[in-house]
Specification:
This protein has 10 helices and 8 strands. Strands 1-8-7-6-5-4-3-2 form an 8-stranded parallel beta sheet.
Length: about 260
């Protein structure tokens, strides 16, 4: 059975002051404080700005030995690829490789948009992207239900890439609930179940949802089954508004690992 690591998507949120971070804590100390409570973190800034090896290495040095990072792929690789995407992939891989060299990289997270449909062109692009980013540990999150077939799972497994399972609102077109594992990596992301804001909200209101204890307890057996099949299971809460992710992560940890 692989380790289960529970954490959050992002950590540098001002509205976590008073909810998780002490009010007077300087923002440059957020990561150091966060790492006292969690074993890894998903980095979101890397979607908006191309990271550098120097910056990522400095972040790792502010955390304890063994603390891991999952780094979200830059938008030029997932949402807005250009004809020069291979250069962007090389730059991104070089930066993230600094974490891998330190033994601090849990995964490189490729989160694809809902509009990334199961077409021949997109299948070729994803195949080429995975090759360009190999041999880094890769995890792919699909945002629509067109990529749930066995052929996709077989190809990801063959390439050593993990597929990300998601908890999301029960809306048509979104990925089906799944326990599928590929590449030896288990990855579960909790996006909340905010149906009203899913299609119209922004990156805060869409994920503004607090899981109940009953909802988390219902999902615990699924996570235990996934962990039995995986070398490592990463669990990340993306419902970050007002510290909800922190609270739910702590609740899930208490459910899975009662003292």
């Amino acid at each position: 059975m692989g380790d289960i690591l529970i954490a959050t998507s992002g950590y540098s949120y001002d509205d976590w002051r008073g909810e998780f971070y002490p009010e007077a804590l300087p923002k440059e100390e957020f990561l150091r404080y966060y790492a006292l409570f969690f074993p890894f973190v998903e980095l979101n800034f890397s979607y908006y700005a191309m990271p550098s090896a120097k910056n990522l290495k400095a972040m790792a040095e502010r955390t304890p030995e063994g603390f891991l990072f999952s780094v979200k792929a830059h938008k030029s690789l997932s949402h807005e690829p250009s004809p020069a995407w291979r250069d962007d992939a090389a730059s991104f891989a070089k930066a993230v490789g600094a974490l891998a060299d330190m033994g601090r990289l849990a995964a490189l997270l490729i989160q694809l948009p809902y509009r990334f449909h199961y077409t021949p062109d997109n299948r070729r692009y994803l195949s080429d992207l995975l090759k360009a980013l190999a041999p880094l540990p890769l995890a792919v999150e699909f945002r629509n239900d067109e990529w749930g077939g066995p052929r996709v799972l077989e190809e990801l497994d063959r390439r050593g890439a993990g597929i990300v399972a998601v908890d999301r609102p029960p809306l048509p077109g979104l990925p089906a609930a799944s326990e599928a594992l590929t590449g030896g990596l288990g990855y579960m992301r909790f996006h909340g179940r905010n149906e009203a804001n899913w299609w119209t909200g922004d990156n805060v209101s869409r994920y503004d949802y607090m899981y109940s204890k009953d909802e988390l307890e219902a999902l615990a057996p699924k996570l235990k089954r996934m962990a039995k099949e995986a070398k490592l299971l990463l669990v990340a809460f993306n419902n970050h508004a007002k510290g909800k992710a922190v609270k739910n992560a702590a609740e899930l940890k208490a459910i899975l690992f009662p003292e």
